[in-house]
Amino acid sequence: MAERQTAEQIAEHRVVSVQWQGRTKYTYYDDGIVKITRYKKRKVYWGRIFAALVIFVLLAAGIVQLIKAALTAFANDKTEIQVNSSLAATYSAEESAAEPAVTDESSAADSTSSTADSAAEPAYSNMNFTVCIDPGHGDYDKGAVTSDEKYESDQDLEIGLKVKEYLESCGVSVIMTRSEDVQVSLSERCAIANQGSADFFVSLHRNSVSDNASESGVEIWVNSNQPQYDTALAQNILTALGTAGISQDRGVKYGYSGWSDQNYQVNMDTVMPSCLIELGFMTNDTDNELFETKQTEYAKAIGDGIIKTAIDLGVCAEDGTRKLSEQLLSDSKANVTQQY
Ligand SMILES: [Zn+2]
Prior knowledge:
Aminopeptidase; 6-stranded mixed sheet; disordered C terminus
């Protein structure tokens, strides 16, 4: 065994060879000195590695759970919309099979609207046909808006439920495309009417125009092919609304606002006579006041206009007896260039 030397002394010598025995290093120098270095066993922190792994796995599992929860919430949202709309359809179908009665919905609508509220006296009874009433927009799609933040989607539903109530008091079966504040696609609305074998389809909307508060009045839109039955439906409703009191009769219009050869989808993909009512401008004070105060009259006018059309077109007799054995179909809705 060689005598131990300082690092400085060793550094002056030249290394001849190095040998290992286990963890001990023998360095042989040219002058016979041997340096012995014992290396400690490298410590592996298994405990810490294990803890880190556990934390990593837990974190990963947590993130996966979070993503799953988010995806499920998103899927539920979509399902809810679908379920709601099919429920709405089912509910309306069930309702329409029943005898006229004031439903919970319509009494709710009564108690929420402020001024004109007593239900109109029915002008007909036992009218044996089916109407699909389509309150526009819904849920996140609010439609037009008044300066005091009233939404079209709410007003379309409000008047829609009143039209339903009036028609049912006359014995008409009513299918609603929506009975609450939910989103229903345009194709779904058409499908609800077509599958429910409705004889008429009436979509309810309110108008708006930017930067022109003086624009006012009621207009009703019909398919660009100008089908006779659909036109009769629109004209009868407009005439009745004129009697009830509107600021201006803007007439029956064909196609889509700004494009006469194109169409609102609900006037194209429904098989029965259909029309889309723009019940005054939400950007006009007079129209808004009329809408607020004349809802009962408007609902009755729309209902009477529909019933008159059913009688005129021979769907049923004046006493309500059904004359047509099948669902009434529109006389012409083909050859349309583009849909909206
Ligand atoms: Zn609208």
